[in-house]
Design a protein that fits this description.
It contains two helices and five strands. By secondary structure, it is of the alpha+beta class. The chain has one domain: 2-Layer Sandwich (Alpha-Beta Plaits), CATH 3.30.70.100. It is globular and about 30 Å long. It starts with a strand and ends with a strand. The relative contact order is 0.35.
Length: 90
């Protein structure tokens, strides 16, 4: 099991990035959360099976069709199992 904390920058707000992130994470059976940051970036935490987290990180590099991702900062954190689902937070 793996946990990754990501910050995605570019044109990632106002393009349904959070909604598609949630949809993709749920399809991959990942837990965690996603939210917009005040600087225009999107922050997320993903927990789940290694291969599914890796797939999610690859998706984050392109995002939904109207997004323009310029950078994805990824940091691995200890898996905690604290989440029971994947949510959009505010």
């Amino acid at each position: 099991m793996k946990r990754m904390h990501v910050i995605i920058t570019g044109r990632v707000q106002g393009v349904f990035f959070r909604a598609y992130t949630r949809e993709t994470a749920l399809a991959l059976k990942l837990n965690g959360w996603v939210r917009n940051l005040h600087d225009g970036s999107v922050e997320a935490v993903f927990e789940g099976e290694d291969k599914n987290v890796k797939t999610m990180l690859e998706w984050c590099k392109k995002g939904p069709s109207h997004a323009i991702v310029t950078k994805v900062d990824v940091s691995e954190e200890p898996h905690t199992g604290e989440f029971r689902d994947f949510r959009i937070t505010y």
